[in-house]
Amino acid sequence: MRLDKYLKISRIIKRRPIAKKIADQGRIMINDKVAKSSSSVVTGDKVTIKFGNKTLVVKVKQLLDSTKKEDAEQMYEILEEKYEQDFREI
Q1: What CATH number is attached to the domain comprising 14?
Q2: 88 in any annotated domain
Q3: Domain annotation covers residue 65
């Protein structure tokens, strides 16, 4: 399954065009390699996503073509979620 489609169906990112944009900016990695929106995702992959000051690391558990909101979280397992703080002097 394409990376952008997986992120949208799993509801990690709400809209597919946004998932595509983030991936094509080099802010998503699959198994520690920079991924594009068209990269393939398979069960067991480790996906790292950088959102501004937040980094989310998930493990792909399932690939589904469509899902209900309450079932979306079964598609992945959160391995790590960290926030970076901005320490600029004022």
Answers
A1: 3.10.290.10
A2: no
A3: yes
pLDDT in tens, 5-35: 999 999 999 999 999 999 899 999 999 999 9
Find the distance separating the first CA and the last CA of the chain, reported in whole Å. Answer: 46
The number of domains in the chain is 1
Phi, psi for residue 10 in degrees, rounded to 5: -80, -10
* pLDDT surpassing 90 at residue 51: no
Answer yes or no: is 90 within a domain.
no
Q: Rounded distance, CA 65 to CA 10, Å?
A: 10
pLDDT for 84 equals 80
Residue owning tokens 């920079």: 34
HEC string of 31-77 equals CCEECCCCCECCCCCEEEEEECCEEEEEEECCCCCCCCHHHHHHHEE
Kindly report the pTM of this predicted structure: 0.82
